[in-house]
């Protein structure tokens, strides 16, 4: 993924949504023909989930699409580093859900992150058990399964998706797989990439400090955080500074960063 595809980079508003929520779902990113080919291949695939990236005839082609590469570059730059991948399969009528977790030990990077791309080759409605995420939890660093005792949290949502959708998740977001209540096996392919460069100003930064975009960050006070929602919002405002490459832009609650001389 070495080619720079600036015309396909994410907008400031899109990146602000990612900064605030810890994920960004892009619909209609993959054309129907490739979705159908990938879905058929996944249903026939008998190998190990961790080998699908290397043995598939179509999945790397999907991630070479300009619109997909442009989105990836917006998160991790033009030379991302492959971390791991997996084809997740939830059988029909598999009624056991996963425990809440974050896909990492406690990360020592202050703001750098890996991105996890979840590709849906077929329609995945709520009843089929798409990945459950907790928006805004990505900067609340935890160690992997330490949050498994939580079962339902205010504000959680399922990544219901149409075929051709790719959801890009911050590696720290709290999430878990859900039961599949249908008679059809569910598939989702996950690709995790590490940044190949500092993750500053990698997206289309036009309008990053506009009132409309800053308002997305200012409203990032999830109800699950309770009394700490403002603290969570200030951390997201710091994250936005990092992503923009501007250490003075201030979208924090009541201008907290500026008032503190930060």
From TrEMBL:
<dbReference type="InterPro" id="IPR008775">
    <property type="entry name" value="Phytyl_CoA_dOase-like"/>
</dbReference>
<dbReference type="GO" id="GO:0005506">
    <property type="term" value="F:iron ion binding"/>
</dbReference>
<dbReference type="GO" id="GO:0016706">
    <property type="term" value="F:2-oxoglutarate-dependent dioxygenase activity"/>
</dbReference>
<keyword id="KW-0223">Dioxygenase</keyword>
<dbReference type="Pfam" id="PF05721">
    <property type="entry name" value="PhyH"/>
</dbReference>
<keyword id="KW-0560">Oxidoreductase</keyword>
<protein>
    <submittedName>
        <fullName>Phytanoyl-CoA dioxygenase</fullName>
    </submittedName>
</protein>
């Amino acid at each position: 993924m070495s080619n720079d595809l600036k015309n396909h980079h994410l907008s400031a508003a899109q990146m602000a949504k990612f900064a605030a929520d810890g994920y960004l779902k892009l619909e209609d990113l993959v054309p129907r023909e490739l979705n159908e080919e990938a879905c058929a291949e996944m249903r026939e695939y008998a190998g190990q989930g961790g080998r699908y990236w290397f043995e598939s005839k179509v999945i790397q082609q999907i991630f070479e699409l300009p619109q997909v590469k442009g989105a990836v570059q917006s998160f991790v730059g033009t030379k991302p580093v492959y971390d791991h991948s997996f084809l997740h399969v939830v059988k029909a009528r598999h009624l056991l859900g996963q425990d809440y977790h974050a896909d990492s030990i406690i990360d020592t990077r202050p703001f750098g992150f890996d991105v996890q791309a979840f590709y849906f080759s077929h329609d995945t409605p709520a009843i089929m058990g798409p990945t459950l995420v907790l928006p805004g939890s990505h900067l609340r660093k935890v160690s992997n399964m330490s949050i498994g005792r939580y079962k339902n949290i205010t504000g959680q949502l399922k990544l219901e998706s149409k075929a051709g959708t790719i959801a890009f998740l911050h590696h720290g977001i709290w999430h878990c797989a859900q039961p599949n209540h249908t008679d059809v096996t569910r598939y989702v392919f996950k690709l995790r990439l590490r940044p190949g460069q500092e993750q500053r100003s990698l997206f289309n930064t036009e309008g990053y400090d506009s009132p409309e975009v800053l308002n997305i960050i200012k409203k990032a006070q999830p109800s699950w955080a309770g009394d700490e929602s403002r603290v969570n919002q200030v951390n997201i405002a710091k994250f936005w500074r990092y992503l923009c490459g501007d250490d003075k832009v201030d979208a924090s609650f009541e201008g907290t960063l500026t008032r503190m001389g930060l």
